[in-house]
């Protein structure tokens, strides 16, 4: 059994190529995955209503439910597109939700996981925006927004985002920030640090400890595997 780490799929419509590929990947993991760690921005947009979910995301939710039924644990770290996950993930799917990331333990190793949007302490503007978006006021506002309105806003924003994105040489991750972030958690006793957010796969080793930055599931189909006490980066298109 192995543990998998995925981030930044930005799913919007079931007919999209990355959505179809992620479903294919998840269905292939049933019975062979101990833990699935979702490191944020799996959805282009998510609001956790109590009694309904967005119909476009039902295929993914079913795939996650099938993984849970097969015995996998699901850990979900909220990103900057999918916070306020709500009762479906916590109660129906039984996910362990870590809004700001945290430490999980696998085979005796402490692994710090986060989306990655908070690793730059100098980005005060984003931190203020993030605090507002996750505030109790906005949580109540979102809970009272009709789902059709919320989805229409999400589609509009998502289409703008998609038009601005085109396949290109992979972005460079901010290595200095990532390494400083990793070293802080190594100093506190972690053996590994895994982040998403930057859409650029990176692995660095530090005296027996490892830092992983995940790529995305927009066109890279990147993920990390923890098996037999070791981390590796992989791409779905190249997995045998």
UniProtKB/TrEMBL annotation:
Sorted UniProt keywords: Cell inner membrane, Cell membrane, Hydrolase, Manganese, Membrane, Metal-binding
Q: Give a GO molecular function annotation for the protein.
A: UDP-2,3-diacylglucosamine hydrolase activity
**Coiled-coil regions listed:** none
SUPFAM superfamilies attached to this UniProt entry: Metallo-dependent phosphatases
Q: Which Pfam families match?
A: Metallophos
Q: Which domain of life is it from?
A: Bacteria
One cellular component term (GO) for this entry is: membrane
Q: What are the residue boundaries of the Calcineurin-like phosphoesterase domain, all occurrences included?
A: 4-201
Q: Could you give a single Gene Ontology term from the biological process aspect? A: lipid A biosynthetic process
Question: Which PANTHER family does this entry report, sorted A to Z?
Answer: UDP-2,3-DIACYLGLUCOSAMINE HYDROLASE, UDP-2,3-DIACYLGLUCOSAMINE HYDROLASE-RELATED
Its name, as the record gives it, is UDP-2,3-diacylglucosamine diphosphatase
Gene source species: Trichloromonas acetexigens
């Amino acid at each position: 059994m192995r543990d998998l780490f995925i981030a930044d799929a930005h799913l919007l419509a079931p007919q999209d190529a990355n959505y179809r590929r992620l479903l294919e990947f998840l269905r292939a993991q049933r019975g062979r995955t101990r833990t699935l760690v979702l490191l944020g921005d799996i959805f282009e947009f998510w609001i956790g209503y109590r009694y309904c979910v967005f119909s476009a995301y039902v295929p993914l939710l079913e795939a996650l439910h099938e993984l849970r039924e097969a015995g996998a644990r699901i850990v979900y770290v909220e990103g900057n597109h999918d916070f306020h996950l709500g009762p479906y993930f916590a109660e129906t799917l039984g996910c362990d939700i870590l809004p700001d990331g945290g430490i999980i333990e696998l085979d005796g190793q402490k692994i710090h996981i986060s989306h990655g949007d908070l690793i730059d302490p100098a980005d005060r503007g984003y931190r203020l925006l993030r605090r507002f978006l996750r505030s109790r006021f906005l949580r109540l506002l979102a809970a009272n927004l009709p789902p059709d309105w919320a989805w229409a806003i999400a589609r509009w924003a998502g289409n703008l985002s998609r038009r601005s994105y085109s396949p290109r040489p992979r972005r460079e991750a901010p290595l200095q920030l990532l390494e400083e972030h990793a070293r802080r958690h190594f100093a506190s006793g972690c053996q590994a640090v895994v982040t998403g957010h930057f859409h650029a796969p990176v692995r660095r080793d530090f005296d027996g400890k490892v830092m992983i930055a995940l790529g995305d599931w927009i066109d890279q189909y990147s993920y990390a595997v923890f098996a037999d006490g070791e981390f590796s980066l992989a791409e779905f298109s190249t997995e045998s």
